[in-house]
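INPUT
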Amino acid sequence: MNIVMAGTVAMDDIKTPYGERIGIIGGSASHFSTAASFLAPTSIIGIVGKDYPARYIQYLRKKGVDTSGIVQSKDQISFYWKGFYENDMNVAHTNDTILGVLSSFNPVLDEEKKNADFLFLGNIDPVIQMKVYRQMKKPVFVGMDTMNFWISSRKNELLAMIKKVDALFINDGELRQLSGEVNLIKAAGMIRKKGPKMVVVKKGEHGVLINGILGTEEFLFFTPAYPTMMVKDPTGAGDSFAGGFVSYLHRVHTQNNGKPIGLADIRHAAVWATATASISVEGFATSRFDKITAKDIRERCDFLYQYTKFEPMPE
Amino acid sequence: MNIVMAGTVAMDDIKTPYGERIGIIGGSASHFSTAASFLAPTSIIGIVGKDYPARYIQYLRKKGVDTSGIVQSKDQISFYWKGFYENDMNVAHTNDTILGVLSSFNPVLDEEKKNADFLFLGNIDPVIQMKVYRQMKKPVFVGMDTMNFWISSRKNELLAMIKKVDALFINDGELRQLSGEVNLIKAAGMIRKKGPKMVVVKKGEHGVLINGILGTEEFLFFTPAYPTMMVKDPTGAGDSFAGGFVSYLHRVHTQNNGKPIGLADIRHAAVWATATASISVEGFATSRFDKITAKDIRERCDFLYQYTKFEPMPE
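OUTPUT
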C-alpha cells in the first residue's frame, strides 16, 4: 500500500553559487516522493497548472510514484517558486512566488487512498491539510510539515492539525517562531506537549533533534548531518528528509506485518532520512536521486554509524 | 604525574542575561584545571598580578591543582577580562581587556614539569606556547588551543606550533579564519594536514567534530552538545572542554601503563569533555564544578550515549 502524500508539484527557478536552473521540477510532493521511492511508493495528492510539463509527471511515474491523484487545472498556471541561495546555503532568498493553481486546491481522495496506512501532509495550508486528513479512514502513521507563512497566518488551524499527527517535521527557525522559545530543546518539548507524538527538528547542517513519546516513554534522539562537502542546491532537503523518514517507517510497518514501530526503528528512520537529504542537496532539484541506488544511501548510514558511535562509558 | 597546563590565571567581570559578577576567577588555566580535576591533577604554568586574590589560588589548590608554577608579579596587575553576553550566548562581547602581567609572561619549567607526559597549551601567544613546549623532555600528548587574535597577528608562529601537537582545539569561527575555508569538514581536513594528529572543532551548541589520524587510519567523529537548558555563563566552556578531554586521555594513559591511546578512548574523551563543558556553562566561572562529582559528569555521558546511539542499519 502506498504512502499518501498531499503537497505541491511545482516548478522552480533556482540560482546557487554552483549554477542556475530555470523551470526545473519542484514542490514538496515531488521531492518527498522521489526521496521515498528507494523504499516505498507514494501516491501524490496535488494539483498542477495547464502549463505543467508532462515530462515531469512521467519522471515521477518512472520513480514508481502514483500520479493519479494529481489534478491538472484547465485554466490556471502552475505553482512556481523563484529563488536563490548565497554562500550561506541555510538561507533561501525568494525572488517570486506564483501561487497559481494552489489557490484553488481542493483535494478529494479516492477509496484506495482513503484507506492508506501512511499519510504525509506537505507544508500547504493547514486548512487543506485537515481536509485531507479527515478523508483518511484508518491511518497508522500521519506526518506533517509546515512553514513560517502558516505559523503567522493560520496559527490556530495549524495547532488543530498538529494535535492529530504522529510526527511534526519543522525546522529550527519555524520551531522558535511557533513556540516563542529560543532554546530548541525546550521548544521541541513545548510543541510535543501540544499533541504530536514526535517533533522532528531539522537544523540543516547542524543535524536533527527528535523529542518524542512512544507509549509512555519520552525520548530524545539526535543525529548530525552527513558531512557532505558538496551542497549544490538545498531546495527540497527538508522534503527529502521527510520522504526518507516516512518511507523507512513504512517499510518497517510493511515488513513487521503490523507490529508497532519501535524506538530503534525511529532512530534508523532519522539516520536514513539524514543520508537521503544529504544526497538530495548534492544536485539541483531531485537530479542526484537519478544517479544513485538504495545502496548509496545505506553506505551513508553506515558512515553515520561510525561517525557517532561510542561504547557506553567504562567505569 | 600531573598534566602541565600553560595558560592564564585571571579575573573576569561578566554580565549575562542571568546576572552579573565582578572580579570572579577566570583564565584558561583556571577553567581547564578545575574541569580536569575530576580525573587528573594539573600543574599550572602561569603568572598573576600583585593584586591577584590569594583565595583564588587557594581555591585551585583545594581542587588538587599544583600552583607552584604560578608566578606572582611584584609590580604588574593581573590579566583582566570584562565582557558580556546577550541572548545569543555563543557570542562574547568584550568591554575591556587588561593584559597586565601577560605582557611579561616568560614561563620557566622546573624539572618535574619538564618531565610530564601530558602538556596543554592554552590560547596564549604561540611564541610563548613554543617556549613552554621546547622545555618539555618527552611529552606523550600535547594539546593546544588558540584564538582569533593570534590567527591574525601571529599566523606563522601559530602554524609552526600547530605542527608539533597531537590535538589542536579550535572553535568553528577560528577554524574558518585559519583555513580560509567556510565548510568546516573541509577546513578541519586542511588544518589537520598541516601537522596536528587531531583537529577538535568546537561548535558550541552544535557539538564537536574531530578530524584525526591514528597511526595511518584517518577518522571523523562527531558528538552533539549535551542539551542543557540552563546556559548561565559560557565563559571558559572551551577550556573546560579541553580540561575534560585531556584529563580523560591522561587517565587512560595512566591506567594503561603506557599502552597507546585508541580511537575508542578519543571518542570517550570527546563525550566526557562535552558533558564537562555542559556543566561548566550552568554557573558563573567554575562555580558549578563546586557542586558536582565525577558521577554527575558520568551521568551526562550516559545520556549522550542514549541520545545518539543506534544499531548498525539492518539489511
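end of record. DSSP finds eleven helices and 13 strands in chain A.
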